[in-house]
Write a structure and sequence with these properties.
By secondary structure, this protein is an alpha/beta fold. The chain is built from 9 helices and 13 strands. It has helices at residues 14-27, 45-50, 67-76, 96-106, 119-122, 158-164, 176-185, 201-204, 224-246; strands spanning 4-10, 32-38, 57-60, 82-87, 90-92, 110-114, 135-139, 142-147, 154-157, 189-193, 198-200, 247-249, 255-257. The chain starts with a strand and ends with a strand.
Length: 258
């Protein structure tokens, strides 16, 4: 079995973090090492983590350096054949990690895997169903959905990470979505589990996907942060529609330009 190193980054979200660690502990039954990187929190997170059992490596930043730096530091101190990046607002379904590992073990052409729901599923808008999101690959009873962009969580073989390289410390847009472009640039495919096994508490706040999430009940109050998230969804929708207008699936099941 491949050894998995999971890097969880956090900053000043102790409430989310407690729920995330609880869910992780209850639902992660695959062998792993958990590395938590705190980016100089001042809300009690550091003290909580220092007393929390179940963390294999705890990295406490001495200055605020950003999520890209935290992710890179965690990966550099990891030892697994597979590296996984998760946020401090994730919740998990039992057996989630096994499903991700099965995809990476069976499909060497897949360079990055996520376990989130795609955007079109979250907000129930089939117009967002891109050709990539309709392409299912199967091998040894393992299924994966080939997708255009990763979001939130990212799992890669270390060999793929070595080819793609670290996250940028200077590019403010250097999130996992942008990193997806770099993975594809190395001729890898991107995928997610056939059925989602992770959810983000942050995404769950979005009013259009409250009806979809099965993890928590949320209020109907929309915060400024949620309003920004709604704009993000609108922008993402436009990008996917633009992609759909220029691409299709060919007879071999590959995505090509029209």
């Amino acid at each position: 079995m491949a050894k998995v190193s999971i890097i969880m980054t956090t900053y000043n979200r102790l409430g989310y973090l407690k729920d995330c660690l609880k869910s992780f502990k209850e639902n992660t039954n695959y062998d792993h090492e958990l590395i938590v990187v705190d980016d100089f929190s001042d809300d009690g997170t550091r003290e909580y983590l220092e007393n929390y059992e179940g963390i294999d490596k705890l990295i406490l930043s001495k200055t605020r350096s950003g999520v890209s730096s935290s992710r890179n530091r965690g990966i550099l101190q990891s030892t697994g054949d597979i590296v996984g990046l998760i946020d401090d607002d994730n919740l998990f379904i039992e057996g989630w990690l096994q499903k991700i590992v099965e995809i990476l073990d069976n499909f060497p052409e897949i360079g990055g895997v996520t376990a989130y729901r795609p955007l079109w599923e979250i907000i129930d808008d089939k117009e967002l169903l891109s050709p990539l999101d309709s392409h299912i690959v199967k091998k040894n009873n393992v299924e994966a959905m080939i997708i255009k962009y990763l979001g939130g969580a990212l799992f890669m073989k270390r060999s793929a990470w070595d080819k793609v390289g670290p996250f940028s410390h200077t590019d403010p847009r250097s999130g996992i979505g942008r990193y997806s472009d770099r993975i594809r640039g190395k001729k890898y495919l991107l995928a997610r589990t056939r059925y989602p096994v992770m959810e983000s508490m942050d995404i769950g706040h979005h009013p259009m996907c409250r009806k979809f999430t099965e993890f928590k009940n949320y209020t109907d109050n929309i915060s400024p942060e949620e309003m920004r998230e709604m704009k993000f969804f609108d922008d993402a929708k436009n990008k996917i529609i633009e992609f759909n207008n220029t691409h299709k699936i060919n007879e071999d099941g590959k995505v090509v330009e029209k």
